[in-house]
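Q: Predict the assembly, please.
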Amino acid sequence: MAKAAPVTASTVLELTEALPLDCGQSLAGVRIAYETYGSLNAAGDNAVLICHATTGDQYLASTHPITGKPGWWDRMVGPGKGIDTDRFYVICPNVLGSCMGTSGPSSPAPDGQPWAMRFPVITIRDMVRAHLALLDALGVGQLHAVVGGSMGGMQALSLAANWPDRARRVLAIAATGEMPAQNIAFQEVGRQAVMADPNWQGGAYYNTGKAPDAGLSVARMAAHITYLSQATLSEKFGRRLQDREAKSFGFDADFQVESYLRYQGESFTGRFDANSYLYITRAMSYFDLAEECGGLLADAFTDCKARFCLVSFDTDWLYPTIESRNLAHALNAAGAPVSFVELAAPFGHDSFLLEVPELDRVIAGFLDQ
Amino acid sequence: MAKAAPVTASTVLELTEALPLDCGQSLAGVRIAYETYGSLNAAGDNAVLICHATTGDQYLASTHPITGKPGWWDRMVGPGKGIDTDRFYVICPNVLGSCMGTSGPSSPAPDGQPWAMRFPVITIRDMVRAHLALLDALGVGQLHAVVGGSMGGMQALSLAANWPDRARRVLAIAATGEMPAQNIAFQEVGRQAVMADPNWQGGAYYNTGKAPDAGLSVARMAAHITYLSQATLSEKFGRRLQDREAKSFGFDADFQVESYLRYQGESFTGRFDANSYLYITRAMSYFDLAEECGGLLADAFTDCKARFCLVSFDTDWLYPTIESRNLAHALNAAGAPVSFVELAAPFGHDSFLLEVPELDRVIAGFLDQ
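A: Predicted assembly structure:
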């Protein structure tokens, strides 16, 4: 059993046993890169697992090694913050299928070559299986809480539904229990953009000196629009021009919003693997807790003793409030204690990552219950 | 002066004078492909100009020569229909910059080679300039009405704002007076998808035997999602699988919505030119009636004597009701008579093309006023 790290630790765990997957295969030699913050207490009951979103990573509250930027939830996680690392032992693993140290399509297969598209197609539940193997190795039995936004929220819900004794509290922000058709559609557009890039080469681009950066950039641009609200785009950019007095009557980035999007696309390719993008969006489109238990979402939570907290944002059109409300109804039907709040925040789906003080209070309050 | 065609006529007009453009250039030898339905009456006052949307064309109520499908507004335009061709002389031109016979980037430049990216960047107002040249040639002075949905509505508004005596009625459906930032963003994604395709070759692909079909297909897929409502996607497809009993754990189109989108993308490339897509979306992102007259939308309509009718749809998130409401306020401020209605329709932005009987009644009623 691994010992808990004292303050912040960045580690990679290699699993000794093969990880069973929903596709029917097992994956040997899985590596899980993770960060921890704070310490596990003597009773071993203060662990909080935080699950990251689609293109997130384990750099929750520590500097990202590629971008040099603060951790993606630095504002929420730390001493005295909404998730207080003086009290909680916070664990954040990079998800299975990703590219920041955890096994994924860019990792070496048993033959020493990158898996590429030979990597098995994974699910959200498979990501959670990897998380649980990590918790086992860290000596964490029952979590004080599992927490996540967006795809992180789906992992939290999957953990609660499939391993009902493993967490006492489940906090899912801007999430869903069943990926809606519009989101499946946007995810498919992203994958098609990557696969349309000739540099993708059927996924076998790792040793070619080329990568499908252009396609991945387009995928990121399209996705990025869905993370923001119309109001944010209008207020932040409106129709303002970029470094020019007048329209160019050409195809340069005349508008600030065009320049911003291009930057988002290009910078993303510097930190993310295109095949990981395919695998992770595929896992999201497959996510359907109701289907896993016969078709009724409430049945997913029958055996669950955890308390639940669901948060949505009024301007989030990608995972709108109705998705959280459906979850709340299912949890009510299953007799689970659930609180559900829709917060007013202008930033759209990305609100869970941004300055929404009310969210900090909701999270801190829920972890205290 | 050309004579009005008796029933349905499909014609191409070649302008004898160069067309002045907003970019400062003039375009010589412009050809305008158009269809007409019904006859111009002796008083010459029963003409209705119908302007098509981004990827529409002149095949308003006649079979499309490539797809073999009925005209895009066949349900609205014809004898006894909402726009009654027994009463009105209906004219539908292919817009400048498009690819169905009107001059655009795929047309021959003076050197005999396709214009490609040498074609000047055009605006919505330039499209209207071409329409007016066509009306002049057809002997139509003042229109009974100018009508359009989406980008067609923007042309109608541009005509009213810039040539205030040219139409007695202006009907703009699911349109805007100033392209919002989110739409500029989606338009940019589409262009980047096309230009990321190596077959685009800087736009000079016409004689290479290759076309940026993969990029154009991705652009269309992304755009197509924005034309539909979340509810339509959920009801029409939900999470249903395509011709299979179970998920494939692969990257095929497992879901019906994925298969549908791929089909929309692929079939689009068979009927549309990628460079035209760039030019037309650029014209849309440049559209800003307020900017054209100093910054205040109301000032765009100061001299206008026309009656206006604005229609929005409650599930249209691409051109939401607020856009039409802003227009209505501007027209009120300008003292123009305007009726504005938000219709309940489940189909999102595409509602203007689909079965919404209330729209037929609104249009027929407005044309009768």
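Confidence is low (pLDDT under 50) at residues 1-6 of chain A. Residues 37 and 53 of chain A are 19 Å apart (CA to CA).
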